[in-house]
Amino acid sequence: MSETIDKKLLAILVCPVSKAPLVYDRDNSELVCPASGLAYPIRDGIPVMLESEARQISLEEKEKYS
After folding, report:
1. Which is more confident, 64 or 2?
2. pLDDT exceeds cutoff 70 at 1
3. Cα–Cα–Cα angle for 19, 24, 29, nearest 5°?
4. Residue 1: inside a domain
5. Single pTM value for the model
6. 10 sits in which H/E element
């Protein structure tokens, strides 16, 4: 199931690790930070902005979002 995120919310959210902007990945229901190489899950429409919950993205994914 693909989550959606409000564009206004996306505009103000930043990566808690790098403080860089995030990219919304609708297919994986994640907010991706190419700068830190982390992807934060979106659960029930709510971004989980915890480093402990994020997954490390691959080099290919990093290049895709950069």
Report:
1. 64
2. no
3. 115
4. no
5. 0.90
6. helix 7-12
Residue range(s) defining the domain that contains residue 45: 7-65
Q: Length of the chain, please?
A: 66
Choose among 39, 32, 45: nearest CA to 4: 45
| Nearest one of 53, 28, 27 to 40, comparing CA atoms | 53
Instruction: Give how many domains the chain has, as a whole number.
Output: 1
The number of C-alpha atoms within 13 Å of 8 and in the hemisphere containing its C-beta is: 0
Element (H, E) at 61: helix 59-65
What confidence tens digit (pLDDT) does each residue in 6-39 have? Answer: 889 889 999 999 999 999 999 999 999 999 999 9
What is the C-alpha separation between 7 and 61, in angstroms, rounded?
22
